[in-house]
Automatic annotation (TrEMBL):
InterPro entries assigned to the protein according to its UniProt record, in alphabetical order: FAR (IPR026055), FAR_NAD-bd (IPR013120), NAD(P)-bd_dom_sf (IPR036291)
Pfam families: NAD_binding_4
Domain called Thioester reductase (TE): residue spans: 8-241
Organism this protein belongs to: Paenibacillus sediminis
Protein name: Thioester reductase-like protein
Domain of life of the organism encoding this protein: Bacteria
């Protein structure tokens, strides 16, 4: 009997890559992909791309129109009945990832949506694992060492993305005693370390967009840059998640899929400058000055940089990866060094920086 995987968040970057990875490893697997009505066309094209090498077949993939913000995921009872006995693995990745997202929208998708997925997961009869995608930044404003085993530590948050992902993980942790669960907390996701490929230029790519605007001038460091910048390439997240989702040792554990040896912001920023514009930063501007400037809508839109990004260049949190390192031992999966793939990431950015589909609009 084939294994059946259910995904939310397809055709998003992480979900699409994990589906492809698992499908290549198990070309008899079946995939039930919950697709928001607005994403059906994109999802259909994404499945077509998975079939181009001839190893996979269209009948392995079923697109289910639904919505996690609705009870029963917006699915018909006949579909729910069919899934109840066939689904073996559930990957919940659907969420709002925008750092500038309004609170009500983030809460509806990230918290209420996760509650609905949890309720549905509890009805499944042959579930082997529930894999929930959280974020390392459920730690909020906490400083210092952050453990994988910690969550509710009285922390405050930098934005509604963090706070609602925190509330969502709290809900998932509440059902761990009833459902075999693995929680993944990625750092800031970069493109593929081998190809540079990514579907959008956000996160650390905002630094590249900023540098594009000021390349002709002496380049400043933004703040002291003493904190570390936790960047991880998508292939590490995909390979680690695919392994841990099926590993018995990973049942009912939480993993920081973050860089075990992150670079200080100052060093990471200098590496980006060197590879993107061929020069070093030569002076320092206070982070508060840049943050204030980005509060001006016209300046923010001109630079194409979200104000909320600046907080992640100055926050001194250290994400412990002890549990991830131990349970990935022997799998052949490890996090590449940022210095080894930044040139590839920058080259991809240069090639595609005028692609409107990859340039996240800044309000």
């Amino acid at each position: 009997m084939s294994t059946t995987y259910f995904f939310t968040g397809f055709p998003g970057f992480l979900a699409a890559n994990i589906v492809k990875n698992i499908a290549i490893q198990n070309n008899e697997a079946q995939f039930k992909l919950l697709i928001h009505p607005s994403q059906m066309d994109k999802a259909d094209k994404a499945v077509d791309r998975l079939l181009t090498d001839g190893l996979l077949h269209r009948e392995q993939f079923e697109l289910l129109e639904g919505d996690i913000t609705q009870p029963n995921l917006g699915l018909h009872e006949i579909t729910l009945e069919s899934l109840r006995d066939t689904v073996n693995y559930v990957f919940h990745l659907a969420a709002i990832y925008d750092l500038a997202v309004p609170k009500d929208f983030a809460y509806k998708v990230n918290v209420i949506g996760t509650g609905h997925v949890n309720d549905w997961v509890l009805t499944l009869n042959n579930l082997r694992r529930y894999i929930y995608f959280s974020t390392a930044y459920v730690s909020g404003e906490r400083k210092g060492r952050v453990l994988e085993t910690e969550l509710q530590m009285g922390q405050t948050f930098k934005n509604h993305y963090e706070s609602t992902k925190y509330e969502a993980e709290v809900l998932v942790q509440q059902i761990r005693s009833q459902v075999p669960t693995t929680i993944i907390r990625p750092g800031v996701v970069m493109g593929n370390s081998q190809t540079g490929a990514t579907i959008k230029f956000d996160g650390p790519y905002f630094a590249m967009r900023f540098l594009d605007k000021f390349a002709a001038f002496p380049i400043p460091y933004v703040g002291k840059g003493e904190a570390t910048l936790n960047l991880v390439p998508v292939d590490y997240i995909v390979n680690a998640t695919s392994y841990l989702a099926h590993a018995e040792v990973a049942e009912n554990k939480v993993y920081h899929l973050t860089d075990p040896s992150p670079y200080p912001v100052r060093e990471a920023y200098a590496l980006i400058c060197r590879n993107l514009i061929g020069k070093e930063p030569s002076w320092t501007v206070p982070a508060s000055f840049i943050s204030s400037a980005l509060s001006i809508p016209s300046f923010r839109r001109w630079t194409s940089v979200e104000k909320e990004t600046i907080a992640y260049f100055n926050h001194p949190a250290d994400y412990d990866t002890t549990q991830a390192a131990k349970d990935l031992e022997g799998s052949g999966v490890s996090c590449p060094d940022f210095a080894d793939y930044i040139q590839i990431a920058v080259s991809f950015y240069k090639e595609h920086r005028h692609d409107p589909d990859k340039m996240i609009p800044v309000r």
